[in-house]
Specification:
Blueprint: H1 2-23, H2 32-37, H3 40-50, H4 57-89, H5 94-107, H6 125-140, H7 146-160, H8 170-188, H9 194-198, H10 209-226, E1 229-230, E2 235-236, H11 240-263, H12 265-276, H13 278-291, H14 306-327, H15 329-334
Antiparallel strand pairs: 1-2
Helix pairs in contact: 1-3, 1-11, 1-12, 1-13, 3-8, 3-11, 4-5, 4-6, 4-13, 6-7, 6-8, 7-8, 10-11, 13-14
Length: 338
């Protein structure tokens, strides 16, 4: 049971990280980007919260600096060096490029439209936000009312939207803490353990699985249609309702991951690979998004096949980079791969 549960979560993360790649290149396909964004990054916060263990502040600070901030800085530096070399070759102002990239790294924003501040650091915002969320959840669990504390942090992030955007994605880290806490409570309450739930003395209408499916689908679909969620720039159109919808959407992806785990062994192996090395995929996805001119490889004359081919190129690049990291000891240390 334990091994299967770990496999299921790896598959779940694999689905999430591949959706991230697709979600950043959706072209003109209606609603695809909003559909993916409605749950794909909250999914990683929920999974991380599920495995969260309270620790001493110093230990948590050191551990997550190594696990999150070092890959963040390494990738930001890699992108910067590439851009500086390109600028030098093109006889552009190298110092201007350097200052822009330093500003992007310090801000840590996932979207350039945040108060007109650009350029964005892109998908790397997640690492900074997760760093803060870890610390805040550790504080929350030491309070008398951790849920209310996390709700308050999310409310602060809602209130600060369009007022200020603090460095290193501090605000997405505030709202992300609530997702972490929900994931943590899902494990504490055993909400993914069917046998444990059946042992509870619940009214009959709460035991109906299909009723729960209908309710959760209605919550997610309503949030997707009426709201809008972009964690990267800390935007929740419907505030807490968007967060509830995201959790509901993640539950359906979890069901899909469990089905793949049980029924499709070959697909499971592929998704487990991407899930296990999702951090590496995220970092090098941002590198290729920032620096590789895919439009030279994927031309518009390919018509309807253009986007699938673009996704295939990006996923192939991610696989190549994972293999590189696995075979280079320095990179293994950067990404904490044992």
């Amino acid at each position: 049971m334990a091994a299967r549960r770990i496999d299921t979560f790896d598959v779940l993360k694999g689905i999430g990280i591949l959706l991230m790649i697709v979600g950043h290149s959706t072209g003109k396909i209606p609603y695809l980007r909003d559909f993916i964004f409605s749950f794909h990054m909250p999914l990683f916060f929920l999974v991380t919260g599920y495995f969260f263990k309270p620790a001493g502040f110093k230990d948590l600070l050191v551990k997550n600096s190594k696990r999150l901030l070092i890959p963040y800085l390494f990738t930001a530096l890699l992108i910067m060096v590439h851009m500086l070399i390109y600028a030098w070759c093109q006889h552009r102002d190298v110092w201007d490029v350097l200052l822009i990239r330093l500003r992007a790294t310090l801000l840590g924003s996932g979207a350039p439209r945040v108060f007109g501040m650009g350029p964005a650091i892109g998908a790397l915002w997640f690492l900074c936000a997760m760093f803060w969320s870890y610390l805040w959840l550790n504080v929350a669990l030491r309070t008398r009312f951790p849920f209310l504390f996390c709700m308050l942090l999310a409310a602060i992030s809602f209130g600060l939207h369009k007022v200020v955007f603090l460095p290193l994605s501090f605000q997405p880290g505030l709202s992300g803490t609530l997702f972490l806490y929900v994931g943590y409570q899902i494990r504490q309450l055993g909400l993914l353990d069917a046998a444990r739930i059946h042992s509870w003395n619940l009214p009959s209408f709460l035991r109906n699985k299909w009723a729960w499916v209908a309710v959760l689908f209605a919550l997610w679909f309503t949030a997707f249609q009426r709201g809008k969620l972009e964690m990267s720039c800390d935007f929740y159109k419907l505030w807490y309702f968007d967060m509830i919808g995201a959790v509901a959407g993640c539950w359906f992806v979890y069901l899909l991951a469990g089905y793949v785990d049980r029924v499709w062994p070959r697909v499971k192996r592929v998704l487990r690979f991407f899930g296990r090395y999702s951090l590496v995929v995220l970092c090098f996805h941002q590198y290729e998004t920032s620096n590789i001119p895919w439009h030279h490889l994927v031309v518009s004359s390919w018509g309807d096949y253009r986007l699938p081919m673009l996704w295939a190129w990006k996923i192939a690049f991610a696989v190549l980079m994972v293999q590189l990291v696995l075979h280079v000891p320095f990179l293994r240390r950067i990404f904490q791969i044992r």
